[in-house]
Amino acid sequence: MNQKLIAIDLDGTTLNTQQKISKRTIRVIKALQDAGHLVTIVTGRPYRTSFNYYQDLDLKTPMVNFNGAYCHHPQEKNWLPGYRITLPSDVVSELFRLKHNDKVKLVSAEVDDSVYTSSHYIPYPDFFPHGPSQAKFLGNQAFDQEATCVNVFTQDKYLQRKLEKEIIADYGHFVEVRTWGGFAPCLEIVSSGTQKAMGLEQVAKYYGIDRADILAFGDENNDYEMIQYAGMGVAMNNAILPLKEIADDITPYSNDEDGLARYLEDYFNL
Q1: Could you tell me whether strands 70-72 and 63-65 are parallel, antiparallel, or unpaired per DSSP bridges?
Q2: The one catalytic residue among 9, 11, 213, 223
Q3: Which one of 33, 54, 90, 171 has the fewest beta carbons within 10 angstroms of its own beta carbon?
Q4: Where on the phi/psi map is residue 215: left (φ > 0), alpha (ψ -120 to 50), or beta?
C-alpha cells in the first residue's frame, strides 16, 4: 500500500461529544504513523485549542487551523510552505458590531497568537487553555485590526442560521462563513475563498502525496471542500446530510462510538 496522508477534523470527528480523544483512537493513529503513514489535523479551531490534541496523538506533521486560513508546522517555526490569510480590518470591525445583539454570547477575533473578545463568556472548556487571562477583553471598544478568523457564538442554532444568511448577504464578497461540529453554536468567519482543502493541499505537496492517496474525515459544512479534494473523502456517521451526500464513504459509527478509529482499523487491516 502507498504511503497515505490522513486528514482528520477534530470536533465531531476525532473528538467525542466530551471533546476527548479515546484511547482506541490514540492507539490507531500511533499504529498508522508507525506503519509510515502521515496524519494531519485540519480544523476550524485556533492553534491554542488544538495543540493539546496534536500532542495527545504524538503528531510530527504540519497542522491546518481556522478552516484553512492558517497552515503551519508546530515543530518548525519558520516552515516555508506555511501561510496565514487574514480578513480586512474594516470587515472585522463591522463583524464585531454583532456583539450588540443580545443573543450573541461572544464575538472573538484571532490575531496572530492573540484573541480579542467582546465578553467574558467561555464557549467551551478549553477555549482558553491557560485561563481567561489569555483573552484581550474589548468591552465597548471598537476593533480595527486584521484578523485570521472571527468567531460568533450564538445563543441557539436558529440565530446562528439567521446571522449566517445576513453576513453572507452583507459581506459575501469578502468572507467565507462556516459552522462547526462543537456543542456551542458558532459561525467561523475567514477570508473569502479560504477553506480546509487549501491547507490540506499544501501539506500534501510538501510530502509529495498524490490526491489519490489522501483520506479525509469530517462531519460539518466546513469539511465540504476537504472531503471533495481527498482521494477518499469520508463523512462521519454523525455528519450533516449534505456532507454525506458528497462523500466517498460514511463511517458506520459516530464520533461517540470510535467511528474514526474503527473505520481506520478496517481500511488498513489493523
Answers
A1: antiparallel
A2: 9
A3: 90
A4: beta
Evaluate whether 49 touches 73 at the Cβ level (below 8 Å): no
Segment 171-186 shows an average pLDDT of 84
Do 130 and 77 fall into the same domain?
A: no
Q: Which of 222, 216, 237, 217 is nearest to 180 (CA)?
A: 222
8 A C-beta contact, residue 236 and residue 217: yes
CA 114 to chain centre: 18
Percent of the chain exceeding pLDDT 70 equals 98
Q: Which of 139, 158, 191 is at the close of a domain?
A: 191
Give the per-residue pLDDT at 182.
67
Closest CA to 269 of 10, 18, 28: 28
Residue ranges making up the domain that contains 70: 5-84+194-267
Q: What is the pLDDT of residue 3?
A: 97
11 is catalytic: no
The residue that leads in pLDDT, 156 or 241, is 241
Note whether 194 and 176 are within 8 A (CB): yes
Cβ atoms of 200 and 230 closer than 8 Å: yes
| Statement to judge: residues 186 and 205 lie in one domain | no
For residues 63 and 143, state if they share a domain: no
Q: Which of 44, 73, 49 is nearest to 59 (CA)?
A: 73
The pLDDT of residue 181:
64
C-alpha of 91 from chain center: 21
* Cα 207 to the center of its chain, rounded Å: 21
Provide the whole-model pTM.
0.91
Report the domain count for the chain: 2
